[in-house]
Amino acid sequence: MKPIFMTYTRGDLINLAILLIVGVVVIPMTVSSGYWYTSILIPWLCLALATIGQQIIMGYTGQLALGAAGFMAAGAFACFNLILRVPGIPFVGALLISGLIAAAFGILFGLPSLRVRGIYLMVATLASQFFIIWMIDKFGWFKNYDSSGIITAQDIVIMGKPFTSPVEMYLVIVAVVTPMTLIAMNMARGSTGRNWMSVRDMDIAAESMGVSLLKTKLQAFAISSFYCGVAGALFAFTYLKSLEPVAFDIKLSFKVLFMVILGGLGTINGAFIGAAFILLFPVLLNYIGNNVFHGAIDATIISAIEQVVFGVLMIIFMIYEPLGMAKLWETIKIKIAGLFSKK
Amino acid sequence: MTERNFPIGGPVLEVKNISLSFGGVKAITDTSFNVLEHEIRAIIGPNGAGKSSMLNCINGIYKPQVGSVTYKGEEIQKVTPNIMAQKGISRTFQNLALFKRMSVLDNILVGRKLHTTSNFMEVALQLPKAKREEKVNRDRCEEIVEFLEIEDIKNTPVGKLPYGLQKKVELGRALATDANLILLDEPMAGMNVEEKREMCRFILKVNDEIGTTMVLIEHDMGVVMDISDRVVVLDYGKVIGDGTPDEVRSNQRVIDAYLGVEH
């Protein structure tokens, strides 16, 4: 297939059109239960966006950073404070500035990557996770001196219209996630992404080709944290509907990390697949527990099974398919296409 | 080699009194030589003679304790791989330093980095400038792919290719930079006779058609003598011979170093 739009083939564009029609028209028209939006679609898209951020730094640039939740918290609290303190700021504007603030933190905590790599960088970037959460907890200003510890997020208001019902919030998220995904794909497939990947695969050769390690790494950290920041703000305003630093703990960082690994390192669609899997799998297990075994299995056991299965899957993927479920999906598609072309 | 498209000119690269040591180990001692424009210059010598170290000094991966590198008449104060790339010196690596998970074409495209001026915003939003640049770069890389006769593998991840082809891709990536001078670190190591012959053909073709100055390190004396204009011989980090292949071949010190000498 010949690319008709940069590196996009006709097939890519058709896929995009189908996804958009399903996402914007079919789902809002057919799915009416709020549960699907509030518990599945909204967190899925928010976390997928954060996973794209983690993909950029880890999957594309090869920097083992572990602090996605910290940047998400930075974005969430930045958004809260912007709406609270800047009168008349449009929601999308607040969202973008939150992303930029998170990006600034990203650059700051990306600095160690110029000196250390691998597991040491992972430890160094953990600092972001703990520092940002500590900062928000320590200085009351960030939480507007709220003593309860849980602050209700403001309503999303765009052009004077409040978006408060699950469907409306879902549409807001789609409107943010779609362009950001496309932008990430453009970068990943263009010269920006090639610079990232060259640093990931062989930094000394990248340097000899004129790629600046300093610039490329910090740029990747900034863009990655921008995505995490926006995702964090959306996550707090639509899914949590509250702002509490505890929600952005290290567990969330790990969750995003697992989404990257299971989805497939260095793939954008892997971010969505990984996020869907990690989010939906517990739901599925619960469903099986309740409907097949009729509650005969204790809920604690189910959550234990969840952990075990995740652990095993991580190991299996690391060994047999480092490119994750996105690669698996490709293989399946090729196989299916092969079946049809034979007939 | 009489009627060349690009006749050999004056010195472009001068290496003066370079000394490099790692702790107590002296890799290079007070070495000087020059490279003339459009020539193919070989650096040979036994294992551990300091050939690769020499290239790494020119390219800025190693920082020599003493000595200077002058390129196009300008003494380069701070030699780093990045600065040398910007000056127009590209290279390949001895143990292959390709971007393994990227496709052949993408690897070569990274070589176009210095011919890419659009920033990430322009790329992200696919502004006309970024699109235009990408098209120009892709066309140039397709030319190189065609030149190296690797069209059929251009979308394969490099890590999956056999060694000989990977060496070709690395040459392609160096060519994509449109560098005036390319440092080739053992471009033919580990190749069979046929592959070597093919690689020689490419090196000569590049030199002849584009006029790129080449500095290459090679073990295989036969190959070196066939394709290079001048040869510098290193042994224990010192220059023991410098001149045309014929001069070097009859140099007693070189013969001693290669064949051993009775004591």
What does this structure look like?
The complex is a heterodimer of chains A (343) and B (263). Chain A is mainly alpha-helical. Chain A has a domain at 31-248. Chain A contains 13 helices and six strands. Chain A is globular and about 60 Å long. The mean pLDDT of chain A is 89. Chain B folds into two domains: 1-88 and 180-263, Rossmann fold; 98-178, no CATH class. Helices cover 38% and strands 24% of the residues of chain B. Chain B has helices at residues 51-59, 81-87, 104-110, 120-124, 128-147, 163-176, 193-209, 221-227, 245-249, 252-259, and strands at residues 11-22, 25-36, 40-44, 66-71, 74-75, 89-91, 181-185, 213-217, 230-235, 238-243. In chain B, the strands form two sheets. In chain B, strands 6-7-8-3-9-10 form a six-stranded mixed β-sheet, with helices on both faces. In chain B, strands 2-1-4-5 form a four-stranded antiparallel β-sheet, with helices on one face. The model of chain B has no long low-confidence stretch (mean pLDDT 90). Chains A and B meet through helix 6, helix 7 and helix 8 of A and helix 2, helix 3, helix 4 and helix 5 of B.
Give a quick rundown of the structure.
Chain A has a domain of about 220 residues. Chain A is about 75% helix and about 5% strand.
Task: Describe the protein's topology.
The complex is a heterodimer of chains A (343) and B (263).
Chain A: E1 3-5, E2 8-9, H1 10-30, H2 34-60, H3 68-85, H4 91-110, H5 119-138, E3 151-152, E4 156-158, E5 161-163, H6 166-189, H7 191-201, H8 203-208, H9 213-240, E6 242-243, H10 250-263, H11 269-291, H12 299-320, H13 324-342
Antiparallel strand pairs in A: 1-2, 3-6, 4-5
Helix pairs in contact in A: 1-6, 2-6, 2-7, 2-9, 2-10, 2-11, 3-4, 3-5, 3-9, 4-5, 4-9, 6-7, 7-9, 10-11, 10-13, 11-12, 11-13
Chain B: E1 11-22, E2 25-36, E3 40-44, H1 51-59, E4 66-71, E5 74-75, H2 81-87, E6 89-91, H3 104-110, H4 120-124, H5 128-147, H6 163-176, E7 181-185, H7 193-209, E8 213-217, H8 221-227, E9 230-235, E10 238-243, H9 245-249, H10 252-259
Parallel strand pairs in B: 3-8, 3-9, 6-7, 7-8
Antiparallel strand pairs in B: 1-2, 1-4, 4-5, 9-10
Helix pairs in contact in B: 3-6, 5-6
